[in-house]
Each structure stands twice: as structure tokens, then as C-alpha cells.
Amino acid sequence: MKYTLGKKRKAQVWIETVIYTLIALVLIAGVLAFIKPKIQEMQDKAIIEQSIELIDGLDKKVLSAVEGAPGNSRLAELIIKKGVLEIDGVNDKIVFRLDESKSMYSQPGRKNISIGNINIYTEKKGSLNSVSLTRDYKTAYNIQYEEMDKLKTITKGPTSYNILIVNEGVDSESADKRIIINIIPTG
What's the predicted TM-score (pTM) here? Predict the structure, then answer.
């Protein structure tokens, strides 16, 4: 009789251990299901804020290159952890786009909001958002990539990208006499 009672106690301890472990796992899964989207949203917001600083830094380099004489250049380092950076020579813009973002940086579908010279637009795409940050140079400068009016997309990468921003002087062939800013990869 004592022998059977001891086996029952051991079995009961194991059953309780398994039940408590299952309860703990369910609680952890529940907490993670709630917290993980919030963490992703905070990470995306941080990436957007870093990208605002990136575009603002590029803008300062462009303005600094323009302040000097033609031939003046500035080196810029680009670190892209998520999203894409577009150097749009056709439309004379620099655009950072973060698709599939959990963060809603501005009100989706509404008017652009501006931070300095950067326009921010959020578009709702299902449960996610597409956030674009744009610096438009159309009225002041002719942006080119490798001396051509073309679109260059720079994607995320494990290392940084280095570009040279060069003041090529006034575009004598155009009617509006804008300054040509040539962006050249250096690595």
C-alpha cells in the first residue's frame, strides 16, 4: 500500500509540473502576441526618425556643396537598415520609402506633414503602412545620378554606402538655369 501511494505522489508531481509548464507557456505566448507588434511599431518609428535625419543630412550636404563654386563636393555616408532610398533625377527628388511599416508616422491618406524641408506621407495598406519621406529640389536644383537624369534605388544593406555630392554649376542648357547636383557612388 505504501508503495502504491508513493507512485501516485510522484505521478501527481509530474502532472502538476507539466500543467504549470503549459500554463506558463500559454501566458508567455499571450504576452508575446501583444508585445511583438508594439516592438515592431517602435522599431519602424525609430527607422523613420533615423531616415528623417539621413535625408536632412543629405540636404545639408547638397546645400553646402551649392554654397561653394562649381566643382565643390561633399561626401555622404548612407546607412539603410530597412526600406529604400531613391535618388530621383527625373523628378529632382530624394525619397526614402518604408513599405510594410507597423508605424503610422502621419495620418494615413491625409495631407503631407513637413519637418523642415522634408515632406512625410503615410498610406494605409491593409494592416500595414507605407511611409515616404521626400525632399523635393525641383524649383532650385537639377538632381542627377552619375551625370544623368535617372532614378537610382538604394536598398538596405549590411554595410554603408558612400556617395559624393558634386556642384556641377548652372545648367546653361535649361531655361530655368538651375544648379546641377550630381550624385556619384564612391564604393
Answer: 0.78
